[in-house]
Design brief:
single chain; mainly alpha
Length: about 140
């Protein structure tokens, strides 16, 4: 019981010391905002200095330099232009592809009709037919 009274006394000190407009963290179960420091930094000032060093010498810290960013931006722009050109070509060729697909479908229908006629003639003559397709090879 002495522990409970000690905890209650600590809670009352904290609540009396805090601002009356501050939210009660126990009631809302929210944790305070924390920011992890970079490796090797023991304080916020160490982290600020480390970040300044990283920004002044980005290549030494594995970060992209202005030259790297310019090169990558130009490469992305070139690829974007290539993609636009390919997309335009694809759009231009689409009607021709659709037309070829229609021709192939018509030819397949004609082949099925011819096979049906040959099969009927073979039955009339008392023989059988055997069909090979490109898929059977």
């Amino acid at each position: 019981m002495s522990e409970e009274t000690a905890d209650a006394g600590t809670d009352s000190q904290i609540s009396s010391d805090s601002d009356s407009t501050a939210p009660d963290t126990k009631a809302s179960d929210e944790s305070p905002l924390t920011i992890a420091l970079p490796d090797g930094s023991e304080s916020v000032s160490d982290a600020i200095i480390a970040h300044r060093e990283m920004l002044t010498e980005p290549r030494d810290h594995g970060l992209a330099t202005d030259q790297d960013i310019t090169h990558l931006s130009e490469a992305v722009e070139g690829l974007s232009t290539d993609i636009e050109e390919l997309s335009r070509q694809h759009d231009e060729e689409r009607p021709a592809i659709t037309e070829l697909q229609n021709v192939v479908e018509q030819q397949q229908q004609q082949i099925r009709e011819l096979q049906s006629m040959v099969t009927s003639l073979a039955e009339i003559l008392g023989t059988e037919t055997e069909w090979r397709t490109f898929d059977d090879s």
